[in-house]
Specification:
The chain is built from nine helices and two strands. It is mainly α and about 220 residues long. It has a two-stranded antiparallel ribbon with strand order 1-2.
């Protein structure tokens, strides 16, 4: 099972695809996708691709009209690989987890500013999809670290923070995500291992799904 880290080129491909095919209700950036997937693999219940995949597009009716079945398979395979990478990281190296925050280097303070809002919006979307129950106070404080940046009704609070204070709140997000994953993992049955693709694989001699009329091995398999 492939759980290797996506390359910069692959991350850019996912980011561009989400943006090109997105809408007001969909996941629009790879940062938001990373947050969404982090919540999906961290919650109290396993959420299968048949449930979370339509949410990427703001509903099944908004899924892109792919140029070919091969293009959709490539996109879906990268999604599963990134999710598997997150699963492996949280299961075996939780202290090494690094969220795909957006970064702003061009500012008058000459400092790297991590922008966590997209990531946190994605995470809270995953929380909502998983219908997380109310957490005990000692754990809700970790979710609040993410919720602060992931709900529009907190923007006024964020707007009153200095850049330094804002970055201090961002620094709490990755450790909070690790704490939340560990909390639900102890209470979840069965234990999450790695996710497998759920789309049926087209056989070499099957008709190609792109509609060309040719066999798959003579068409999009090339």
């Amino acid at each position: 099972m492939n759980d290797t880290h996506l390359t910069d080129v692959e991350i850019e491909y996912l980011d561009n695809t989400l943006l090109d095919h997105g809408n007001d209700e969909s996941i629009l950036t790879v940062s938001e996708l990373d947050g969404f997937f982090t919540a999906i693999i961290s919650g109290p219940e396993i959420i299968p691709p048949s449930i979370w995949y339509p949410v990427l597009w703001g509903g099944a009716e908004n899924e892109p009209e792919w140029s070919s079945h091969k293009e959709k398979e490539k996109f879906f395979a990268l999604l599963i690989r990134h999710m598997n990478f997150l699963v492996t990281t949280f299961m075996h190296y939780p202290t090494e987890f690094e969220a795909l925050f957006m970064v702003n280097d061009s500012n008058e303070n000459k400092m790297t500013i991590y922008i966590a809002e997209d990531w946190c919006f994605g995470y809270m979307c995953g929380v909502d999809l998983g219908q997380w129950p109310t957490l005990p106070d000692e754990m809700d404080v970790y979710l609040e670290a993410i919720r602060l940046h992931g709900r529009e009704d907190n923007f006024e609070r964020l707007g009153k923070l200095s850049i330094e204070e804002h970055q201090q709140t961002v620094a709490k997000i990755e450790p909070a995500a690790a704490k939340l994953h560990a909390y639900w993992l102890e209470r979840r049955t069965p234990t999450v291992t790695q996710l497998r693709r759920t789309e049926p694989k087209t056989g070499r001699n099957d008709p190609c799904a792109c509609g060309s009329g040719k066999k798959y091995k003579q068409c999009c398999l090339h």
